[in-house]
Write a structure and sequence with these properties.
Number of helices: 1
Distance between the termini: 16 Å
Structural class: mainly beta
Helix content: under 10%
Order of helices and strands: EEHEEE
Strand content: 25-35%
Oligomer: single chain
Number of strands: 5
Length: 98
C-alpha cells in the first residue's frame, strides 16, 4: 500500500491523502492534481507513505516533478526537495517506526 499525502495550511496542518495505490502496477507517468491544497500556500509538504508491506519490500517512485501552472506555461519549482533527496542526501530525512 502506498499513499501520496499533502500537508499545508490549507489542510489545517494535517496530512491528507490525495492518491492511494494498492496491488496495482503502474508503468509510466501518474499525474496527481494537488492544486486545491497547494495554491497560495507557502508551506506545502508532499510525502510518499509506504505501509503494510509483507513480502513486497519496496515501492518504486522515480522522476517526481512538481509543476505550477503560470498561465499557459508550466514551470518547475526549484528546488523540489529541501532535503537533497534527488542528490542522495539523507541528513535531513525523518524516520518513524511503528
Amino acid at each position: 500500500k502506498g499513499d501520496v499525502d499533502v500537508r499545508s495550511t490549507a489542510t489545517g496542518g494535517s496530512w491528507v491523502t490525495v492518491e492511494s495505490f494498492s496491488g496495482q502496477v503502474y508503468d509510466g507517468p501518474v499525474e496527481i492534481d494537488i492544486s486545491s491544497w497547494a495554491v497560495g500556500q507557502s508551506d506545502l509538504q508532499l510525502r510518499f507513505h509506504y505501509y503494510d508491506a509483507r513480502f513486497e519490500w519496496w515501492w518504486g517512485v522515480d522522476d517526481v516533478l512538481l509543476v505550477a501552472n503560470n498561465g499557459f506555461v508550466c514551470e518547475p519549482f526549484v528546488p523540489i526537495f529541501a532535503d537533497s533527496f534527488e542528490w542522495e542526501g539523507t541528513s535531513r530525512w525523518l524516520s518513524t517506526s511503528p
